[in-house]
UniProtKB/TrEMBL annotation:
Residues 172-362 form the Helicase ATP-binding domain. It comes from the Bacteria. Keywords: ATP-binding, Helicase, Hydrolase, Nucleotide-binding. SMART domains: DEXDc. One of its GO terms (molecular function) is helicase activity. PANTHER family: ATP-DEPENDENT HELICASE IRC3-RELATED, TYPE I RESTRICTION ENZYME ECOKI R PROTEIN. This is DEAD/DEAH box helicase family protein. The keyword ATP-binding applies.
Amino acid sequence: MHNQNPEQIARDNIDKQLLACGWVIQDKKKFNLAAGLGVAIREYQTDIGPADYVLFVDKKPTGIIEAKREEEGLRLTTVEEQSSQYANAKLRLLNNDPLPFVYESTGEVTRFTDYRDPKPRSRTVFTFHRPETFVQWLSQEKTLRARLQDLPALPVEGLRDCQVTAITNLDTSFKDQRPKALIQMATGSGKTFTAITFIYRLLKYAKAKRVLFLVDTKNLGEQAESEFRAFTANDDNRLFTELYGVTRLNSSFIPNDSQVYISTIQRMYSILKNTELDESAEEENPNESRFIPKEPVPVGYNEKVPIEFFDFVVIDECHRSIYNLWKQVLDYFDVFQIGLTATPDNRTFGYFNQNLVSDYGYEKAVIDGVLVPYNVFTIETEITKNGSVIKMGEKVDKRERLTRRQFWEALDEDEVYSGKKLDNDIVNPSTIRTIIKATKDNLPAMFPDRRDADGNFEVPKLLIFAKTDSHAEDIIDIVREEFGEENKFCKKITYRSEEDPKSVLQQFRNDYYPRIAVTVDMIATGTDIRPLEVLLFMRDVKSKSYYEQMKGRGTRTCSIEELKAKGTPTAKFSKDHFVIIDAIGVEQSQKTDSRPLEKAPGISLKDVITSVAMGNTSEDMLSTLANRLIRLENQLQDKHKIEFTEKANGLTINQVVKKLLHAHDPDVIESTTSKVKGEMRGFAPIEIEKAIAVEQQKIIEDAVAVFNNPELRDFVIDIRKKLDQIIDVVNIDSITNIGWVKDKEETSTALINDFKAWIKTNKDEITALQIFYAQDYRHRTFTYTMIKELCEKLKTEKPLLAPVNVWKAYEQLEKTNGSAKNELIALVSLIRRVVGIDSTLTSYDKTVDKNFQDWIFKKNAGKHNAFTEDQMQWLRMMKDYVANSFSIEKDDFDLTPFNAEGGLSKMWQLFGEETNSIINELNEMLAA
């Protein structure tokens, strides 16, 4: 096949793809429509000329392929008119209708249009669709894009406003046939629930065939599976899994009888490449690897998973793992793509064509009361800030990283180390102890209400982020010692912990013990731990997105009942904030939107070797790995070198290194080029170039083949960890700075004074303010509408005095009780503080909670229980309603949540003649 022109080369590539996709290719003079389900006939004659390919399915014409040479790839959209004319032409000897399926292809780039769609629009596809797919599509009354036009209005019962907005806007995006959509929702605001809700609607109403839910860690996949299995739609009382099949992929086998498939992006990549994947590759988010392939190994067509296997792909945590190597998974499938993230960066916006259907960030979620805010407490020590030095001649402990075996050794030179070296090359127990002791000493002041009947302080649920597994072990020992507690008080939750990490995580989430958990990686993202109230950072984070995800572990709300049951029995209030204890300068360290993609100093051997196994075989990468192995060989004992050879198919470290260095060696490349050119004399230059590239790729693949073995990779990574750490017991650390992080007090004071002045100026004009100043508690006339009007007037006249801004200013100057759940509750709380009703700024819902407890206590005086459990449940609903709407009237019982429980008639049934007095008393007492 030499001396071909560009058109012939394009046809050859198209033929290869058609054959792979199940089509039989025939010449127009020797056709046999019974040769297969799908037959592609070249140069079939139409009444306007020969079409490049006519596609027959079950002996009926269904489609057209217009073939162009590769150079035309950038102009394929200009060919659409031509291909459309062929599709609408009459085929020779046939009285056919217009053909619906139309392709324009160079063999490298292919575009496809289904002319049955509303407003038919071409799109780029990886390759051609299979004949069976056309049979299925033609059997349906409407196309998928037409069915999306019929999505009904969303039932909003049980959904948060942010979820309603996201799904409604996504429906509009689908109806506009936009191929990609991005949903930004703050961590903890219900992204996965939102996704399952719209997936349910796509399966039920748009008759979607299959949906792929893509994650980047096994942990996230397991959580997603649990949420699918627990989901019940608000228009059907059956579980999701009773209606649709849900399969989480854990091997290369993909059953075709499910509707929802959950997979890591790593596994789907390996499936498309027809390779097996070790489960260890699914445990960590691949974006955390510092090296990403610059020239990723391309995926090929896989007939077991054709491009049309899925209709939709939902990408969870899409800000981190959809680029470079992994982007190929998304490029492969002919699908709508929906991204879910709390922390998009510019790349994410760009990838999803700036189609942001939901913009619900952390601050909005805090204002709405969906998430809780946080305060930052700094612990800075002398050694974490400035490092230290161990003098030559000092006898120090040394420790093998992996085995933790310790031995004594005298230093033969000064060991100068910076704070950044701590807990990697140098371990200073005094630094860890100083931070833990400072944490223990300051927790009671942070949570002053956490004491039991005997006056003992109860430690809130606390999560510590450690640098490494070894660092985590050191922290655990010191935590248990400093707090004077037993083993179950503090545990490690990492992928490498000997105790089942899922079991410990479940205990941390639901049981009293452990009170403190230490993690390196496992619960940095995507894990819901509602009772968690303190995050202690003892590792720095350079990725802005990853840091936001880590902070998200603490943002979940938690009711007083759940907090008492699962977290802290001594808690007096619902969780209204969490505390970040910054012991490493993580709040001040420079963050980037994304991790660096190029080689940089300080990259771990694990990242290097994993990247090579994942397909990054660039010259930089292979030379880096070779240099690391050379250094490693000089440090290993003979028995370890023998073990390496056994796991490397008989190759020594030196032989592996030579192969790695030869892979991109210019002399080897020149030799390969000369050899191929000699063997292919007379062939077209493009064919020779392709053959040279194939031979060079074989050399590279041979060089890295040993690293496909996960046992060898683990051996190299683990043996490196056995190398020694120095234990610095000479230098004792001390606190240099400790306390809450505060803004400038002058700014906060000025803002509060402006707010007070505005309130005073308007007190005679606005009814809501008149009531507050009169303090006569005429709460039946004090309505939600009045407060909303006051809030709008304030924001219109003084935008900088928005209630949340003023609340934050108070937090800088004085202790506050609660948080700004939303701007109306914040406004009421602020006015009460300004006019002197409250001496401390207290969230209005907390005031209502306290007054409700007092009222119930008063009602129970002299009685065992004044109200039945059913009456108490109803009263609690009324209390919650007043906390958010400031009063309750009879008409309100027609609204949520009362209407679902029987409305006003149920109220009369429960309280009879006392109904009116109960309503009046609650209006008067709760807001007092």
